[in-house]
Amino acid sequence: MVTERVQVVVIGGGATGTGILRDLAMRGLSALLVEQGDLAHGTSSRFHGLLHSGGRYAVKDKEAAKECIEENLLLRRLAPDCIEPTGGLFAQLPSDDPAYAETWVKACAEAGIETKELDVGALIQKYPVLSPKITRAYSVPDAAVDGFRMLWSNVNSARRYGAKMANYSKLTAIHQTNGRISGVELTNTLTGEARQIECDMVINAAGAWAGEVTTLAGLDVSIIKDKGTLLAFNHRLTNQVVNRLRPPGDADIFVPHGTITLLGTTSVSVDDPNSFKTTDKEVQDMLAVGREMMPRIDDYRIIRAFAGVRPLYQANKGAGGRAVTRNFALIDHEQRDGLTGLISIVGGKFTTFRLMAEKTVDLAAKKLGNNTPCRTKEEPLSAPQSAEMLERGKKVFGVPGAKKAAERLGEGFAKVVAEAEQDRAKRRMFCECEMVSAAEIEYVADDDDSKTLSDIRRRTRMGMGTCQGIFCSYRTLGAMSDHKQFTVTHREFLAEFLQNRWRGVRAVLWGQQLREAQLSSEIFCTLFGMERMK
Amino acid sequence: MNKKTDVLIIGAGLSGLMAAAKAAESGKKVTVAAKGMGSLSLSSGCIDLWGYDIDDPQQVCPNPLAQIARLGEVNREHPYTKVADVLEESLRCFQGITARYGCDYRDNGGANWLLPTAVGTFRPSFLAPPSMAVKDLDKAKRIVIAGYEELKDFYPEVMAANLARNGNLPESVNIAVVKLRCAWKKLYATTLAHRLEQAEGIKEAVDQIKPHVVSGTVVLFPPVLGERLDIDVAARLSAALGAPVYEVANIPPALPGQRLQQLLLKHLRNMGVDVIIGCTFTGAKTEGNRCLQVTAEGAGKTFTFAAQTYVLATGAFVGGGLDSRIGAVREMIFDLPVCTLEKWASGEFLSMNGHGFNRFGIAVNDRLQPLDEAGQVCLENVRITGANLAGANGPIEKCGNGVALASGYKAGKLAGEVPS
């Protein structure tokens, strides 16, 4: 068996792990990122996609609020293609404590978060979907962030500095010699093959799975696993993030993303980090709260419900749910447990991933004798698309298609445009909802990191729009035929793809979405007999 | 605007059009009014009656009529049990009409056809138009699957990969894929169908396919062989290639369904039926257990229709006859009680049990009159047809168009018997 060697193995392909990988690589440390599924298959793609201004935490968690606003402003500059600077607002209803507004405004000012009181009448005129009962409203610099794109930008940038990434690789053992980390064993979750890696250090950035990782080293880190359910509306209800001006609670944030809006979330303690199931009651409870802010919410179509698990960390056990700090903790297991070479970074939130990475790598670098300073505050994640390439893209994919592809593909865009220029058939839009061309699907399918068809879905967003994959899943079969790494049969592919979509759709099965579900069963069962396909 | 008619059919899908055709035969004044063009264009264009064996649902049913006759023993709520008495005559009537317009829907001697689809599965169906009634595919020496490079929704390689896996084809059969090029820039099913109605479109296809045709070849096409009913593109291609050419079922837009709709509409016009499309029904006025009139909006006008008999053929959720909110389902015109199940959907999308919501609908008696929870007739001059009926599991049983055809026929027949 070949044994590979790197200085640092990072566990967890979420925002924190990919941020750490990039930081390590930029400081010249050799590193490998290990992810059990696809990038962001855990919490970093299962959240509301809010780049916090910090306003939500200002009153209760000033430290967290300060970090949020600083990172928010930084990331807008460093990764503009991952962020939509929508701005946000906090609105108060008659049932909310009116005194909270004063406390909140003051706390925001202290944390450095700019707020501005808005004319409520004008606001409701601008967004008639909002409740006419709103008493006060303030703007804040919230934004929407595409988690998936941010993570890939991190990894792509890290790779340019020589870092490596292994997805579909589960950590199955941590090796230690004389109280010192010496390596890890990884098992490929698709092939079952084991792989040994020698290293000096393991950084545990596994989020909700962080406790599972330290258990392999014989140590205990207690993570509170807190499930949050979200609803996706098939409309952009407002152009700004909408928060409720009151102490944080369930279902009080609406975040616009592209053409949709996410409503989140709940907060329920769970035992298993893989608890992604939503219940009818959660969905209905959320709608009940959401309706207070947007009374006509039931007239809008909901395309799916999904859940993610927040990894919360509380050094001294006892608190739970919303009482637990959203702050992060860096655990030096050398100091705490006497095991040299293991660091855990736990808690925190997406907005502050870069800062968490910086602090973590500061500690790791010091231990490895590396004095290079952190540069992730200065260097942008990716170079902007050239105007010339965008023009060429527009000619083959049309204006909206080219824009979306350019945002998704980064450097790959040039290659995809060139392919489509060569071959007219590749200009076909396989996914009309998200404007994904045949050329883009081919490009992603060719990539070594794409190991399953769901990877193609996550990287292109094919199948994630309004129709939830009715048409494009079938079209992707055509693209599969030329890529032999997808060893599944067409039956398996379609079943898996449709089932993944169905999980989210089934929780919101009424109105227009029930219509779509009936159409899907007409197409895949009545017309194609998929339920009996071999 | 007030309209008076003997029979008002609401909905222009298969069941509504059949109801109109049958009611018109009796000399009644018949009006069809519908919001849109109905969902026939979403269907395969074939008449699926009953696909699989009642006792062994993995086995294709060899004799659908005999199985449906048995259905009363195992599932008394199935809509077929309300129309079993007219099932065979409804099929004969349908075949008679289609034959009159040169598109004779063919049966397979009482057995199901097993017709290939675009993903390479085989679907059991009872009646198929000539362009789809593939004969003896298992005896072919060579199957040529012809697809257009730029047509978005047909992948001949996918079909080829699955044909052998899903059909009882001998190993010796040679399956070839031909990717056609078309001189047109944008290729949609409808534009392609139009092109194939022109001589140059046929020539373009024949020139590219011909080299792949040997003796014993069957050529399979996506369902794009012509938009119009009176131009038999499949026959033209067959003659030019010297090999039988068929089209296979595919995702919408599927032209065989549209052609059937055109055919039936043409027949209705010839029978003097008034057809009004673009009418959104808003409600009904009732007295006791009779409907007095229904109202609709369309083209900036408000219509009221008064009739002896009303046929509700508005479909389920896809058709728009039913709508739902969390935990509640509504019939949109008469506000009739809808039978639902506690479990709306299965956990698996491709479950062999299907989904509860596909069985939702209105309970009826043997005269297709709507019933309330106590089994009493709600409105005695309203008849319910097609996907509005409760109890069928169409996507799994493969009976949607069969139920629509037979129930539409029966509703039309009953309407014709009502004394003026």
From TrEMBL, chain A:
<dbReference type="InterPro" id="IPR036188">
    <property type="entry name" value="FAD/NAD-bd_sf"/>
</dbReference>
<dbReference type="GO" id="GO:0006072">
    <property type="term" value="P:glycerol-3-phosphate metabolic process"/>
</dbReference>
<dbReference type="InterPro" id="IPR006076">
    <property type="entry name" value="FAD-dep_OxRdtase"/>
</dbReference>
<dbReference type="GO" id="GO:0004368">
    <property type="term" value="F:glycerol-3-phosphate dehydrogenase (quinone) activity"/>
</dbReference>
<keyword id="KW-0560">Oxidoreductase</keyword>
<dbReference type="Pfam" id="PF01266">
    <property type="entry name" value="DAO"/>
</dbReference>
<dbReference type="GO" id="GO:0050660">
    <property type="term" value="F:flavin adenine dinucleotide binding"/>
</dbReference>
<dbReference type="GO" id="GO:0010181">
    <property type="term" value="F:FMN binding"/>
</dbReference>
<dbReference type="InterPro" id="IPR000447">
    <property type="entry name" value="G3P_DH_FAD-dep"/>
</dbReference>
<keyword id="KW-0274">FAD</keyword>
<dbReference type="GO" id="GO:0005886">
    <property type="term" value="C:plasma membrane"/>
</dbReference>
<dbReference type="InterPro" id="IPR041854">
    <property type="entry name" value="BFD-like_2Fe2S-bd_dom_sf"/>
</dbReference>
<keyword id="KW-0285">Flavoprotein</keyword>
<protein>
    <submittedName>
        <fullName>Anaerobic glycerol-3-phosphate dehydrogenase subunit A</fullName>
        <ecNumber>1.1.5.3</ecNumber>
    </submittedName>
</protein>
<feature type="domain" description="FAD dependent oxidoreductase">
    <location>
        <begin position="8"/>
        <end position="340"/>
    </location>
</feature>
<dbReference type="InterPro" id="IPR017752">
    <property type="entry name" value="G3P_DH_GlpA_su"/>
</dbReference>
<dbReference type="GO" id="GO:0019563">
    <property type="term" value="P:glycerol catabolic process"/>
</dbReference>
<comment type="similarity">
    <text>Belongs to the FAD-dependent glycerol-3-phosphate dehydrogenase family.</text>
</comment>
<dbReference type="GO" id="GO:0009331">
    <property type="term" value="C:glycerol-3-phosphate dehydrogenase (FAD) complex"/>
</dbReference>
UniProtKB/TrEMBL annotation, chain B:
<feature type="domain" description="FAD-dependent oxidoreductase 2 FAD-binding">
    <location>
        <begin position="6"/>
        <end position="403"/>
    </location>
</feature>
<keyword id="KW-0560">Oxidoreductase</keyword>
<keyword id="KW-0285">Flavoprotein</keyword>
<dbReference type="Pfam" id="PF00890">
    <property type="entry name" value="FAD_binding_2"/>
</dbReference>
<keyword id="KW-0732">Signal</keyword>
<dbReference type="GO" id="GO:0004368">
    <property type="term" value="F:glycerol-3-phosphate dehydrogenase (quinone) activity"/>
</dbReference>
<dbReference type="InterPro" id="IPR003953">
    <property type="entry name" value="FAD-dep_OxRdtase_2_FAD-bd"/>
</dbReference>
<dbReference type="GO" id="GO:0009331">
    <property type="term" value="C:glycerol-3-phosphate dehydrogenase (FAD) complex"/>
</dbReference>
<feature type="signal peptide">
    <location>
        <begin position="1"/>
        <end position="23"/>
    </location>
</feature>
<protein>
    <submittedName>
        <fullName>Anaerobic glycerol-3-phosphate dehydrogenase subunit B</fullName>
        <ecNumber>1.1.5.3</ecNumber>
    </submittedName>
</protein>
<keyword id="KW-0288">FMN</keyword>
<dbReference type="InterPro" id="IPR036188">
    <property type="entry name" value="FAD/NAD-bd_sf"/>
</dbReference>
<dbReference type="InterPro" id="IPR009158">
    <property type="entry name" value="G3P_DH_GlpB_su"/>
</dbReference>
